[in-house]
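Re: that chain you flagged

S.,

Sorry for the slow reply, it's been a week of failed gels. I finally had a moment to sit down with the sequence you sent. For the record, here it is as I used it:
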Amino acid sequence: MSEALLIDSDILIDHLRKEQNALDYIQQEIDDGSPLFISVISRIEILSGARKGEEETIRSLFDILTSVDVDLGGKLGTFVQSVLDMNQLLQAAAFTHKHISWGESWGRPLHL
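Prediction finished late last night. Pasting the structure tokens below so you have them in one place:
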């Protein structure tokens, strides 16, 4: 089995837009048996940008992903004091779940 992956919202949005590279990437990971995860942050980001009529398609995509919480723990003060960076939050989600790798962009997982 391939490693578990936390899929970034950019890839998921491209998938929803039916961009071929995103469709191929997700399908390849599924075919390889990679467990696929989505952070609650990415779920909110995608749902907040949804257009009328896209909800069912989005829910279908979410159905193939396992949702993970983001536990900032003691890092919350650091995030609040600095400019909030979505990539830092996604890294926190992957770090919280040590068995999950996070890909900042296409096919380059950050191993934590």
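What I noticed first: Strands lie at 4-6, 36-39, 66-68, 100-103, 109-110.

Talk soon,
D.
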